[in-house]
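Design request, tokens follow.
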């Protein structure tokens, strides 16, 4: 292979919160680590996180990590693995304090301790009064975290490959993942990064849907790389729709608005969440609030000339609270709507937000795959963390504030496990020459096929088609008929993409080639999502089937595993046993 090759102990693909937290653990332990990111690290999507990160610090209300665990299990609609959830909730307070010591400028209470706001699905004493568990840096928590983690990595001398696009994982004949091939986006030069261990931390796939809260970089690349390496994706049918996206545009208005006392009203001015969740009201979990909004609109109580949204009211909070606690929300609303929320309500509608499924891992961040009936094993040296992974702590519905927690807890856990693994496995394994053959063929296709040469579909057209198909056929409410249409439509798009071309300007801007590779990834994630959704014949968390409208614990307390080869689906049981505490058996989920 005539390609530049670099060797490291660990390759981390992704420089969001998960990748940077893992890299920091590794660099501080003197592991030679390379972080590859398709954007400059501090532009990673973690930067957009607004409301905060959950941890039972007890700064505002009484709290306990076990209550946090209960809320997370209930929020997951009992599909989350309870050992992993216990691990995450126990570790939460310590990881927040660590971040504070790394320099994250959390907002403060009068007494100087970290400010915490109430978020959806949080309770005291196993379902009692509302808890305030979300540690916040105003409404820019992700920005604060990402910048602090990046600075700490610079100090620890982590090696960054900024604006390099990882295309695929590379493996030997035994199936060990030994690195990846990447492209320097500016020059289109290829590079092979060989490593003894690889961590995938490439974030979510919100770009699957037309209206979403995600940046254009969130195209599920790492998940698709895993699929192509014969690794399945878990629980892909569960995609979170956030209740309060700006109507018609999708940008997020954080749940922190409702945490600070904002609430939703319909066309009659009614605070309708009181009917759907009498106890938690507007702070019920996200799937519940999104469905309530969709029902209000379907039954004709939507607002505006087309009755197609509801209103989020926060003017009663007063300008001091809005300016101090929600400054970015105010900016967003003024910029995109010309509405100052100090004076007027914001029009909102559910918007695609978070990928609950992903690369299956255990609580150490190791990627686990099935090996026969009921057993699985961890792939040596391969790890995943963050939104691209499925640990599984979010199950069928993630609680707000639990993702920033997930990325730092499991980023750190993966880093720790890698350090131990490298002590036992200090040498590089040989990477065969032909390991990159198929990926080089793919790259060659996109180098040749520009629109000037062939009359065919273009990448931007097909991306728009995919996003519309997913929105119309795999949204908040689903049925057999609509999902079947979705499966066929995404398969047709995959077929068209295999004959598509990229714009002429690709000779000038490599980004056109990158967009083609990203779309290939998105299409695979779309198929995984819609095929898994068609197969699950029950309603649980974010997966709401109008034709199977009840949760079915007898048949469906299990995780789906989707393989790219033959679009195969298998299942594995939910881990219902916690590590050290009593578990929470499934019961009816009311808020
Ligand atoms: C608007 C918004 C607000 C949110 N607010 C909150 C909140 O308040 N609290 C909360 O808990 N959660 C929140 N979330 C969710 C949370 O921010 C994300 O789930 C989390 O930050 C994901 O972190 P990550 O490290 O997994 O991935 P990301 O931060 O998305 O980083 C992914 C990294 O992978 C890199 N990458 C991807 N593909 C490639 C490739 N092919 N080659 C090279 N590099 C690649 C990217 O460059 C990037 O560095 C919010 C999400 C959104 C969209």
């Amino acid at each position: 292979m005539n390609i530049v090759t670099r060797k490291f102990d660990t390759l981390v693909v992704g420089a969001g919160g998960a990748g940077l937290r893992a890299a920091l653990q590794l660099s501080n332990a003197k592991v030679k680590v390379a972080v590859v990111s398709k954007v400059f690290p501090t532009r990673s999507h973690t930067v957009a996180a607004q409301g905060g990160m959950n941890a039972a610090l007890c700064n505002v209300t009484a709290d306990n990590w076990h209550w946090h665990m209960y809320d997370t299990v209930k929020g997951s609609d009992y599909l989350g693995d309870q050992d992993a959830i216990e691990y995450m909730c126990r570790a939460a307070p310590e990881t927040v304090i660590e971040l504070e010591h790394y320099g994250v400028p959390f907002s403060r209470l009068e007494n100087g301790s970290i400010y915490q706001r109430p978020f959806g699905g949080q309770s005291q004493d196993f379902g009692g009064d509302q808890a305030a568990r979300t540690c916040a840096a105003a409404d820019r928590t992700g920005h604060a975290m990402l910048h602090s983690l990046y600075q700490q990595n610079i100090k620890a001398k982590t090696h960054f490959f900024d604006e390099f696009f990882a295309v695929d994982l590379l493996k030997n004949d035994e199936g060990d993942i030994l690195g990846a091939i990447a492209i320097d986006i500016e020059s289109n030069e290829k590079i092979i990064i060989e490593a003894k261990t690889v961590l995938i931390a490439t974030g979510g796939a919100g770009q699957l849907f037309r209206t979403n809260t995600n940046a254009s970089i969130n195209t599920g690349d790492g998940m698709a790389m895993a699929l192509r390496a014969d690794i399945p994706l878990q629980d892909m049918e569960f995609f979170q729709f956030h209740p309060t996206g700006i109507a018609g545009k999708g940008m997020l208005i954080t749940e922190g608005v409702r945490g600070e006392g904002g609430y939703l009203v319909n066309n009659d001015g009614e605070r309708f969440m009181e009917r759907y969740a009498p106890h938690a009201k507007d702070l019920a979990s996200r799937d519940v609030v999104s469905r309530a909004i969709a029902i209000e609109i379907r039954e004709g109580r939507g607002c505006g000339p087309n009755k197609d949204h509801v209103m989020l009211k926060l003017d009663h909070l007063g300008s001091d609270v809005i300016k101090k606690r929600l400054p970015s929300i105010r900016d967003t609303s003024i910029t995109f709507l010309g509405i100052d929320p100090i004076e007027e309500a914001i029009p909102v509608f559910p918007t695609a937000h978070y990928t609950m499924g992903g690369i299956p891992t255990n609580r150490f961040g190791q990627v686990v795959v099935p090996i026969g009936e009921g057993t699985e094993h961890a792939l040596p040296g391969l790890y995943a963390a963050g939104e691209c992974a499925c640990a599984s702590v979010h199950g069928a519905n993630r609680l707000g504030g639990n993702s920033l927690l997930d990325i730092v807890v499991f980023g750190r856990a993966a880093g720790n496990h890698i350090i131990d693994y490298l002590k036992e496995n200090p040498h590089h394994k040989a990477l065969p020459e032909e390991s990159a053959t198929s990926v080089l063929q793919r790259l060659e296709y996109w180098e040749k096929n520009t629109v000037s040469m062939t009359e065919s579909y273009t990448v931007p057209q097909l991306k728009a088609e995919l996003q519309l198909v997913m929105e119309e056929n795999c949204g908040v409410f689903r049925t057999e008929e609509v999902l079947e249409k979705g499966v066929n439509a995404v398969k047709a798009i995959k077929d068209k993409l295999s004959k598509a071309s990229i714009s002429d300007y690709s000779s000038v801007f490599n980004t056109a080639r990158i967009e083609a590779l990203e779309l290939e990834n998105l299409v695979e994630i779309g198929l995984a999502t819609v095929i898994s959704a068609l197969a699950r014949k029950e309603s649980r968390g974010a997966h709401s089937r109008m034709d199977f409208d009840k949760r079915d614990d007898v048949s469906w307390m299990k995780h789906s595993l989707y393989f790219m080869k033959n679009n195969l689906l298998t299942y594995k049981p939910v881990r219902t046993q916690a590590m050290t505490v009593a578990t929470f058996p499934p019961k009816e989920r009311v808020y």
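Comment from the thread starter after seeing the answer: thanks! The domain at 244-352 is CATH 3.90.700.10 (Flavocytochrome C3; Chain A, domain 1).
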